[in-house]
Specification:
about 120 residues, mainly beta, four-stranded antiparallel β-sheet, globular
Length: about 120
């Protein structure tokens, strides 16, 4: 069964950090580009960051550049999203998903996980 599972979300104060993990089963995550996308209440799902399958090139949404870092550990079949200097506007459900291409377009991704809630509040 093909599956991705996100973890690592939680409640954090503004300026704090979290590291999200995306673990895959049933397929080799390293064969695909992987994206982190988020959806805040009342807003459309948006691409936050992605990493390519070959070479590990990365892309970030302007809103998170310099604060978020995506990485992958193919030996663990896992992709991470390190989030620093978190802001209240980063509050959302964060999803990971796979795609043939590294892109911030949500429509290009399949096999979404259930998501992990990130709440940034004092």
């Amino acid at each position: 069964q093909l599956q991705v599972v996100e973890s690592g979300g939680g409640l954090v104060q503004p300026g704090g950090s979290l590291r999200l993990s995306c673990a895959a089963s049933g397929f080799t995550l390293g064969s695909y580009a992987v994206g982190w996308l988020r959806q805040a209440p009342g807003k459309e799902r948006e691409g936050v960051s992605c990493i390519s399958s070959i070479g590990g090139s990365t892309r970030y949404a302007d809103s998170v550049k310099g604060r978020f870092t995506i990485s992958r550990d193919n030996a663990k079949n896992t992709v991470y999203l390190q989030m620093d200097s978190l802001r209240p506007e980063d509050t959302a459900i964060y999803y990971c998903a796979r795609s043939p291409w590294a892109s911030l377009r949500a429509s290009l991704y399949d096999y979404w996980g259930q998501g992990t809630q990130v709440t940034v509040s004092s």
